[in-house]
Amino acid sequence: MTARNILLRGLIAGFVAGIFAFLVAHQVGEPHVEKAIALEEAGAADEAAPAEHSHEEGGSGHSHSDGEEAHEHEEAAGGHSHGGGETEVSRDNQRTWGLLTGTLVVGTALGGIIALVSAAAIGRIGRLRPATSTALVTAIGFVSFALMPWFKYPAAPPAVGSGDTIGERTVDYFVFLAISVLAAVAATLLARRMHTQVSAYASVVIGAGAYLLIVVLAAIVMPTVNELGDFPADTLWYFRLSSLFTLATMWGVIGVILTGLVGRLDTAETAVAQRRELAASL
Amino acid sequence: MSQVSASAPDVEVPSIPLAQIAPWAVFFGLIAMLALFFVSTDQGATSLISGTAIHEWVHDGRHLLGYPCH
C-alpha cells in the first residue's frame, strides 16, 4: 500500500461521487434554485428597474471582450442577477454543465484529500484494518467539513444574502470550517493517545466530546447571519435540505467507493504477504 | 470498532511512512485547495481572475454545495 495507490483510488471515488452529487443536486436542488431566482428577479424588477436596465446595456456589449468592466458594472448595480441578458452563462448551462463542473471538481479534490488523509491514518488508528480506517476518516471528514459548517452557516439560495456582506460571510464560513476541521484532527489524535491508557470506548467518547465542545463553543461565539428578509420559509428549508442531500451524497459515495477499493487492495496485499510467509517457512 | 478482522488475526497493520506521503500531500493539497477555491470563492468575496465567467459557470454548484454566495 502506497500513497500513490490510495490517492489514485481517491480520485476515482471522488470523480464518481461528483457525478452522483450532480444527479442529486440537479434533481432535488435545482427546482428550489429556480424558485429562488424567480423570486429574486420579481424583487429586482420591482425595486430597481432603471438601474437594471442600464446595467444590461453595459454588460451585454462588453461581457466577453472586457470582463473587468462587466464586473464593475455588476458591483455598481448592487449585486448581480441570474438568467437575464447581462449574464454570460445561460441558466440552462448553469444548472447542467456548470453544476456538473462544480460537483466534479469538488468531488475529485475531496476524494484526493480524503485518500491522502486515509493513507496517513492506515495502521495508525489502533488495529483498525485499512478499509475501516478509511471509512472512519471519511465519516469524521463529513461531520467536520460538511455537516457542522452546514449547521452553523447553511447554504443560502439565490436572492438570499447581500452582495455587501459576501466578504464577511465568506471569512466567517471558512474560519468556522477551519476550526471544525482542526478540532476534528486534534480530537482524533487525542482519542488515539487516550487509547493507550483507557478503553477504546472511553477514548472515542473523550475524543468526540472534545470535538463537540470546541465546535459548539465556536458556533455560539461566531456571528450569526440573518439576511432572509421576507424570503419564503418553505423554499429556504427545501433548498437547504437539498444542499445537505448533495453534500451527503458526495461524501457518502466517496466513502463507499474508496473504502471498497482500499479493502480490495488490502485483501490482495495480505494474500501476497501470506503466500510469501508460507514460502519462506517451507 | 476494535475487533480484529477474521482474515488477519492479531496482525499489526503496516502504516505508510509519513515521509512517503508528504510530497503527495503537499503537491496534491495545493492543487486541491486551488480547485476548491475556484469553485467556492473566486470572483465572489475575492478574485484571483477578474471577470465573472467562473462565478457564473459554477454558480449553481456554489449555492448547492453550501458555499457563501452573494
Task: List the main descriptive attributes of the protein structure presented here.
heterodimer, A: 282 residues, mainly alpha, 8 helices, 79% helix, flat, B: 70 residues, elongated
Secondary-structure-derived class of chain B: mainly alpha
Query: Radius of gyration of chain A, rounded?
Result: 23 Å
How would you describe the oligomerization state of the chains in this entry?
heterodimer
The level of helicity of chain A is over 70%
Radius of gyration of chain B: 20 Å
Give the chain pair forming the largest contact, with residue counts. Answer: A-B, 80 and 50 residues
Biggest sheet statistics of chain A: none
The backbone outline of chain A, from C-alpha atoms, is flat
- Regions with little confidence, pLDDT below 50 for 5+ residues of chain B: 1-8
| SS content category of chain A | mainly alpha
Order of H and E elements of chain B: HHH
| Strand residue content of chain B | under 5%
Per DSSP, the total helix count of chain A is: 8
Largest sheet of chain B: none
Determine the number of helices of chain B (DSSP H or I, runs of at least 4 residues). Answer: 3
* Strand residue content of chain A: under 5%
Rounded to the nearest angstrom, the distance between the terminal CA atoms of chain B is 43 Å
Q: Can you walk through the features of this model?
A:
The complex is a heterodimer of chains A (282) and B (70). Chain A is mainly alpha-helical. Chain A has eight helices and no strands. Chain A has a domain of 168 residues. The longest helix of chain A is centred in the last third of the chain and has 49 residues. Chain B has a domain of 33 residues. Helices cover 49% and strands 0% of the residues of chain B. Chain B contains three helices and no strands. Chain B is elongated and about 55 Å long. Chain B starts with 17 loop residues before the first helix and ends in a 6-residue tail after the last helix. The interface between A and B is large, with 80 and 50 residues.
